[in-house]
Design a protein that fits this description.
Order of helices and strands: EHHEEEHEHEE
Oligomer: single chain
Distance between the termini: 32 Å
Number of strands: 7
Radius of gyration: 15 Å
CATH topology: Aminopeptidase
Shape: globular
Strand order of the largest sheet: 1-2-3-4-5-7-6
Strand content: 35-45%
Largest sheet: 7 strands, mixed
CATH class: Alpha Beta
Helix content: 25-40%
Structural class: alpha+beta
CATH architecture: 3-Layer(aba) Sandwich
Number of helices: 4
Bound molecules: coenzyme A
CATH superfamily: Gcn5-related N-acetyltransferase (GNAT)
Number of domains: 1
């Protein structure tokens, strides 16, 4: 069964929440340390502006990954050209090209909606995600030391950016 990349709908809230549950349980890939509930995810999706997107990877009706594009700021017009990304794929589906397919779709959306650059925060120890974003053209442009603490373990947050 092929994996399709499509725009998230409100019906995907539970599936996206389940991906968050898996990522949060792994503890090492995100600063997010509590999964968004289906209700929270539904509120997030319904609150997206016309210039924001969430694309999902759908495998036979199961959400196996997603990528969100949010405005850098919801109130400053000075950074209207800047978007912020997040990408999450279930463990058993990683390394199969889903992240790259999500990014190709999101980048098309971003260009069509007047974004000029994209920014992402990645945990300092998350070398796989840093390699993923570098493969898309991102480069490291800053680092927040000991920005994350989960179960007594500290980690940096690396800031990466891409000029579209
Ligand atoms: C990071 C993540 C989103 C990448 O998605 P993915 O579907 O696994 O990535 P892809 O298979 O599309 O890989 C695209 C490219 O990224 C790079 N890449 C991906 N995983 C990598 C890894 N583990 N090590 C090194 N490079 C990697 C490669 O260049 C790869 O291209 P190639 O397959 O031609 O070598 C995914 O691994 C994930 O969800 N990880 C856990 C959550 C996370 O860390 N999210 C990022 C938080 S900001």
């Amino acid at each position: 069964m092929a994996i399709s990349i499509r725009r998230a709908t409100l019906e995907d809230a539970a599936g996206i929440s389940a991906v968050w549950e898996a990522i949060v349980a792994e503890k090492v890939y995100s600063a997010v340390d509590r999964a968004f509930t289906p209700d929270e995810e539904r509120a997030y999706l319904s609150g997206l502006s016309p210039r924001e997107s969430c694309y999902v990877a759908d495998h036979a009706g199961r959400i196996v990954g997603f990528q969100s594009l949010d405005r850098w700021s919801s109130f400053m017009t000075s950074s209207l050209h800047v978007g912020q990304l997040g990408t999450f794929v279930l463990k058993e589906y990683r390394g199969t090209g889903i992240g790259a397919r999500l990014a190709a779709t999101t980048f098309d959306f971003a260009r069509a909606h007047a974004y000029e650059k994209l920014v992402v925060f990645v945990r300092g120890s998350n070398s796989a995600a840093q390699a993923f974003y570098k493969s898309l053209g991102f480069f490291e442009c800053g680092r927040l030391a000991r920005q994350v603490e989960i179960d007594g373990v500290y980690d940096d947050e690396v800031l990466m950016e891409l000029v579209l």
